[in-house]
Amino acid sequence: MLSALTQRRRFSDLSEQEVLALAISSEEDDARIYRSFAERLRKDYPASGAVFDGMAMEEDGHRQRLIDLHRTRFGEVIPLIRREHVAGFYARRPVWLAANLSLETIRGEARAMEQAAQDFYTRAAARTPDAATRKLLGDLAAAEAGHERHARGLETRHLPDDARAEEDATAKRQFILTWVQPGLAGLMDGSVSTLAPIFATAFATQDTGTTFLVGSAASVGAGISMGFTEAAHDDGVLSGRGSPLKRGIASGVMTTIGGMGHALPYLIPDFRTATTIAIAVVFVELWAIAWIQNRFLETPFLRAALQVVLGGALVFAAGVLIGGG
């Protein structure tokens, strides 16, 4: 690892031919990344897939012009030099290697790619004293700026407002199916199902330490159970609900959070203070659930609040009655 770092060349030490070769290899890499984006998007977002196909073709065109320039100035043999061979050269984050990238993540990554390349070439051109190298780097910066303008033109051609709105709606629906619904189900289960054991223990023992241990065990156990159940019962292939791992994480984590919210106040030694804060936290959790239902699932807020608060109040009352008896 250390030897690999010490063997990297400084950008300032590269010759004009090597800078040109580096630009050629970078354009080739970016074209491949854009094609991988297009392939990921083609099924669910065909208009955006067409945009990235066009951007890949644009990179190919720039690469070919750079090759022609290299052939004119330096001959047929292009030195093998890539981004990872040069210290301080901008690096592409391997985000395209991740599965199930969201549409907005891919769009944002493409914008960042073009901007990073343009900024690097601009800064490099300003630092070099050699006129020919300065011109070459300036031309590369202009080429990258041209990519961004061309990308906007491709979006206008392939991604009109109605197509973008449709794709954004599809992306929002996928986000809700993969993250919001499992997370909301977990939050509801964790917030409501743990009310009875936590408050039954609290009123039966009036011992905050015991109540906290019972609440923590109930919350973590429910989180593990909900997470495994969500991940195992649907692989997402037929339902289109997305990665079972993501859904399992969303459900499990939110279930645990929902239970721990009103278990944590029992870290306070005073029973009355801890219970008062725990009850207040319960109401905040229940109203948060109602807000999420209204915000993402378009459930009328009053109906969602009535359902959640009524259900929570019944479970809370059961816990108090059992513990008080």
Give the helix/strand layout.
Elements: H1 2-6, E1 9-10, H2 16-41, H3 46-74, E2 86-87, H4 103-127, H5 131-158, H6 161-193, H7 195-205, H8 208-233, H9 244-261, H10 271-296, H11 301-324
Parallel strand pairs: 1-2
Helix pairs in contact: 2-3, 2-4, 2-5, 3-5, 4-5, 6-8, 6-9, 6-10, 6-11, 7-8, 7-11, 8-9, 10-11
Structural class: mainly alpha
Rounded mean pLDDT is 78
Q: How many discrete structural domains?
A: 2
Separate helix tally: 11
Q: How would you characterize this protein structure?
A:
The chain has 325 residues and is mainly α. The protein has 2 domains: 2-159, Ferritin, core subunit, four-helix bundle (Ferritin); 173-324, no CATH class. The chain is 77% helix and 1% strand. It has helices spanning 2-6, 16-41, 46-74, 103-127, 131-158, 161-193, 195-205, 208-233, 244-261, 271-296, 301-324, and strands spanning 9-10, 86-87. The longest helix has 33 residues, at 161-193.
List keywords for this structure.
325 residues; mainly alpha; Ferritin; 2 domains; two-stranded parallel ribbon; 77% helix; disordered N terminus
